[in-house]
Write a structure and sequence with these properties.
This protein is α/β, with parallel strands linked by helices. It folds into 5 domains: 2-112, Rossmann fold (3-Layer(aba) Sandwich), CATH 3.40.50.11220; 123-186, no CATH class; 191-314, Nucleotidyltransferase, domain 5; 320-426, Cobalt-precorrin-4 Transmethylase, domain 1 (3-Layer(aba) Sandwich), CATH 3.40.1010.10; 429-558, Methyltransferase, Cobalt-precorrin-4 Transmethylase, Domain 2 (2-Layer Sandwich), CATH 3.30.950. It has 18 helices and 30 strands. The strands form 7 sheets. Strands 2-1-3-4-5-6 form a 6-stranded mixed sheet, sandwiched between helices. Helix 7 (203-216) packs across helix 8 and helix 17 (456-468) runs parallel beside helix 18 (486-495). The longest helix has 14 residues, at 203-216. The protein starts with a strand and ends with a strand.
C-alpha cells in the first residue's frame, strides 16, 4: 500500500490524481502532517509526500530504522515538477515509484542512487537474495575497478560490467558458503526439494529433514525455489507449514506423473499409499535437473519409524530470449516494454544499423553481437544459442519483430528449453498508414516482394489473390537495384481489378528524420521512385483521397460524396 500525504491545496490536488489513478494501491492520510507521516510510515510499504524535501526529511528521519525494512519515500514538490526518490531507493522501491509517479503526474523523476544514475543494475535489485559486501562491490563497479563474475550456476542475469578476474567478486552460487571480504553472493532459486510425508507428520520433522539435507550437502536454503510433492499430500499440514516457513511455494503433481519418472530409489510403501513408487525423488526430478541429494528419511528421537522423506535437485536456470520489435525508427514509437527488455538483456543480438539506433539505451556490461545485412539466420541461431547458455538475450528487429523480421527464424530454432518472450512493435505498414491517413480502415494484407526466400510464383499468386479479394495491399521490400521488375509486375496485377485512379500511398523512412511521403494513384505511380526503404500501400475499390489523405471506409457503402454510411 502507498500512503499519500499532503499539506496544501495544490498538493492535495496532485495527491487526489494519484489516488484516482491507483485506487487499489493507495491510501490518503488526512489530518496533521506529522501524524499522517508517522501513521503511513508504520502502515504502508511506500509513501508519497506532497511536501518540501526539507520538511519530509525532518518528518521521516526519526522513523528510520533498517534500510532493508523501511518503506520507500518519494517527495513531490508543490509545483508538481519533480518526483524525488528520497529514502529506500532500492529496498523500498522508491526509485521505481518516483518514475511511475513522474509519468502519471508529468513530473521529472529524480533518482540519485549511484547505480541507477549511471545505468547500472544494483546488486540488490537483481531479484535474487544477496549476501556480503554489497556496498563495497557496488562501489568498485561504479569506479570501474575489475569485478569478476563467477557463475557456478547458469542463470539469466541482467548486464553487469564484470571482468574475467578482479580484486572484487560477484559469485552466483547455490552452495552454502560464506562470502569473502570483497565478495557478493547471489542466490539463484535453483534448488527443488521433493518431500513425502506420512499422514500427520509434524512440521518440525519435515522442516528439520529439509534443512539437515541441505546443510549436509553444502547447499543454501536461500536458493530453494519450491517444495514439491504428490497431489495426495497437497494439504498435509506438516508439508504445508514447512513450505510456509521456508517462504517458498508448494507444487504438487499427480501420482501418474510421478510414477513415470525414473528414480534411483523406488519403494513399495508410497506405491501402496498414494499410487507412485516415489514421491520425494520423483517430485524433485519431474521437471528435470541434477539429483544432488537422493532420497533420505527423517530420524526420530523416540525410535519410531520415519514420517518424512526428501530429495534435492538442482534445476539449471532457463535462458531467456526476448524478441524485440524496435518500431519504425522514431524513439517515441519504441514501446516502454521494448525499452525494459533492452535494459534487462545481458546479451543483445541484432543488425548493426538497428543496434546503433538503441545503443544508448543499453546498460553498462551488455554484450553486443551485431552483424550486417543478409545474416538473419545466423543472428537467429546466435541468439538461441546464447539463451541456451543461460543468458538473458534480446534479439532485435525493426518494426514488429514478428513481421518480416527476426521472430520467425529465431522461433524456428528455439525449443522449450528456453523461455521466449515476444515484444510487439509498430510495423512499417502501421507507421506509413498513420502518415497517409487511414488506408488500412478495412481488410488489408501485407506482401513482401522480395523473392530472395520466397519464389516469385508464390508471391505473384498471393498478389493476384489480394487483387481478386479487393484487399488493401501494403508492399514491403518493393524494389532494389537488383530487383526492379517485381513492383511493376505486382501493380499490373492489381490494375487488372482496380481503376487507374485507385489511391496509392508511398512512404519512405516512416517516422525518421528524413521521412517523405506522397499520395498518388495506381496509374500515376512511377516505380523508379521507390526503393527498399519505402512501403507502398495500394487502396481497394472503396479507398478515396479526402483532403489529400487516403481513407478506406470501414464499410463499402458511401453517401453524400464520400461520407461513410452509418452501419
Amino acid at each position: 500500500m502507498i500512503g499519500l500525504i499532503s499539506a496544501t491545496a495544490a498538493g492535495a490536488a496532485a495527491r487526489d490524481r494519484l489516488a484516482a489513478a491507483w485506487p487499489d494501491r493507495t491510501r490518503v492520510y488526512e489530518g496533521p502532517v506529522g501524524e499522517a507521516v508517522r501513521a503511513a510510515f508504520a502502515e504502508c510499504g511506500q509513501l508519497v509526500c506532497f511536501l518540501a524535501t526539507g520538511a519530509t526529511v525532518r518528518l521521516v528521519a526519526p522513523l528510520l530504522g533498517d534500510k532493508t525494512a523501511d518503506p520507500g519515500v518519494v517527495c513531490v514538490d508543490e509545483g508538481g515538477r519533480f518526483a524525488v526518490s528520497l529514502v529506500g531507493g532500492h529496498g523500498g522501491g522508491a526509485n521505481e515509484l518516483a518514475r511511475a509517479v513522474g509519468e502519471l503526474l508529468g513530473a521529472e523523476p529524480v533518482v540519485t542512487t549511484a547505480t541507477d544514475s549511471v545505468g547500472l543494475v544494483g546488486l540488490d535489485m537483481l531479484g535474487l537474495p544477496c549476501e556480503g559486501s554489497v556496498a563495497l562491490v557496488s562501489r568498485a563497479l561504479l569506479d570501474g575497478e575489475p569485478v569478476a563474475l563467477e557463475a557456478e550456476v547458469a542463470w539469466p542475469l541482467p548486464p553487469l560490467p564484470t571482468s574475467p578476474q578482479g580484486a572484487y567478486t560477484v559469485r552466483l552460487t547455490d552452495r552454502d558458503v560464506v562470502p569473502g571480504e570483497r565478495e557478493v553472493l547471489l542466490r539463484p532459486p535453483s534448488l527443488v526439494v521433493g518431500v513425502g510425508a506420512s499422514k500427520g507428520a509434524p512440521q518440525a520433522e519435515v522442516l528439520g529433514l529439509v534443512e539437515e539435507a541441505l546443510r549436509e550437502a553444502g547447499l543454501s536454503v536461500r536458493s530453494v525455489a519450491e517444495l514439491a510433492t504428490v497431489d495426495a499430500k497437497a494439504a498435509e499440514p506438516g508439508i504445508v507449514a514447512a513450505a510456509e516457513r521456508l517462504g517458498v511455494p508448494l507444487v504438487t503433481y499427480s501420482a501418474e506423473e510421478l510414477a513415470a519418472v525414473g528414480v534411483p530409489n523406488p519403494s513399495h510403501a508410497p506405491l501402496a499409499a498414494v499410487g507412485t513408487p516415489s514421491v520425494a525423488e520423483a517430485a524433485a526430478l519431474v521437471r528435470g535437473g541434477e539429483l544432488l541429494v537422493p532420497k533420505r528419511k527423517s530420524e526420530r528421537a523416540d525410535g519410531q519409524p520415519a514420517m518424512a522423506t526428501c530429495a534435492v535437485v538442482r534445476r539449471p536456470g532457463r535462458g531467456r530470449l526476448a524478441v524485440v520489435g524496435l518500431g519504425p525508427g522514431a524513439r517515441d514509437l519504441l514501446t516502454p516494454r521494448a525499452t525494459a527488455e533492452l535494459r534487462r538483456a545481458s546479451v543483445l543480438v541484432g543488425l548493426d544499423q538497428y543496434v546503433d539506433q538503441i545503443r544508448d539505451l543499453l546498460r553498462p556490461g551488455t554484450r553486443v553481437l551485431e552483424s550486417g545485412l543478409g545474416a538473419e539466420e545466423e543472428r537467429a541461431r546466435t541468439a538461441v544459442a546464447q539463451a541456451r547458455k543461460g543468458h538473458a538475450v534480446a534479439l532485435i528487429g525493426s518494426g514488429d519483430a514478428g513481421v518480416y523480421a527476426m521472430a520467425s527464424p529465431a522461433l524456428a530454432e528455439a525449443s522449450d528449453d528456453i523461455e521466449v518472450v515476444g515484444v510487439p512493435g509498430v510495423t512499417a505498414a502501421l507507421a506509413a498508414g498513420a502518415i497517409l491517413g487511414a488506408p488500412l480502415g478495412h481488410d488489408h494484407v501485407s506482401i513482401s516482394l522480395s523473392d530472395l526466400h520466397t519464389p516469385w510464383e508464390v508471391i505473384e499468386r498471393r498478389v493476384r489473390a489480394a487483387a481478386e479479394a479487393d484487399l488493401v495491399v501494403t508492399f514491403y521490400n518493393p524494389r532494389s537495384r537488383g530487383r526492379d521488375w517485381q513492383l511493376p509486375k505486382a501493380l499490373g496485377i492489381l490494375a487488372e481489378h482496380r481503376q487507374p485512379t485507385t489511391p496509392v500511398g508511398v512512404v519512405r523512412n516512416a517516422s525518421r528524420p528524413d521521412e517523405a511521403s506522397r499520395v498518388t494513384t495506381l496509374a500515376g505511380l512511377d516505380p523508379a521512385t521507390v526503393d527498399m526503404m519505402t512501403v507502398v500501400t495500394v487502396g481497394n475499390t472503396a479507398t478515396r483521397i479526402i483532403a489529400g489523405r487516403m481513407v478506406t471506409p470501414r464499410g463499402y457503402r458511401w453517401q453524400d460524396g464520400g461520407q461513410e454510411e452509418t452501419r
